[in-house]
Amino acid sequence: MTSGAHGAGDAWSLTDVITRLRRTLRASVREELPWESLPMAQVELLQRLAEEPGLGVSELAVRQHLARNTVSNLVQQMVTSGLLERHAHESDRRAVVLNLTADGRERLLAWKQANERRIRRALEGLSAESRHAIDEALPALQTLAAQLEAQEEAGAEQAS
């Protein structure tokens, strides 16, 4: 097997593992928090706004790589359900900024804690060598995620 073929196999294996992890975590958090009915798109918006409070709908759409009308609809649902609040922008009263409400922060924290508990339990069932390998891989995976985000942003800029 050539190094190129090996790399492609590794890429598929990584994609498969990430997909399975996301699916399993999503399902398990719903089992642990049966009241939790947040779609992943809403969870991801909450996460982004927790990291970058005060974004507008357009900025949020760009950062999440979603259509503006999709984000607008999600935001409206989340405002109605009390997870987000909208305020007029200080310098442009026609624009709005978005922030998490106390309920939005609490729901996001509960979601994060449920996922963390699930991962910790799973990690405890692994050998010390496997846990160490995962710890060692995290920086490289974070770099990979940042590179993929940068490539996506560059592609979005070229398209516009």
From TrEMBL:
One Gene Ontology term from the biological process aspect of the record: response to stress
InterPro entries: HTH_MarR-typ, MarR/SlyA-like, Tscrpt_reg_MarR-type_CS, WH-like_DNA-bd_sf, WH_DNA-bd_sf
Source organism superkingdom: Bacteria
SMART domains: HTH_MARR
PROSITE patterns: HTH_MARR_1 (PS01117), HTH_MARR_2 (PS50995)
Transcription found in the keyword field: yes
Name of the protein in its database record: MarR family transcriptional regulator
